[in-house]
# Entry
Amino acid sequence: MIGVTNLVGVVGPLSVSDLAANGRKAGFDKHERLTGLPYKQTYAWVLQGARRLRKPIPYEHPSGAVIWVNLASSVERAVLQQLDRF
# Structure
């Protein structure tokens, strides 16, 4: 884990034109032409307050976990220590 952020909103479902208009925010190359959506219903997460950790913290990524991971309490403590919240 190299950083943390707050998830403050969700926008969507998006159309192809919505995604194309915000392609750079979504990580697409500026010359890349979108011809369709990556998912049947595509959403954008609105993030705020992203902070890079001073030192990466190793964690176990469970098999099958795609988006959300429950962190071990030791990992959570290590993150909070780096954010000066512990």
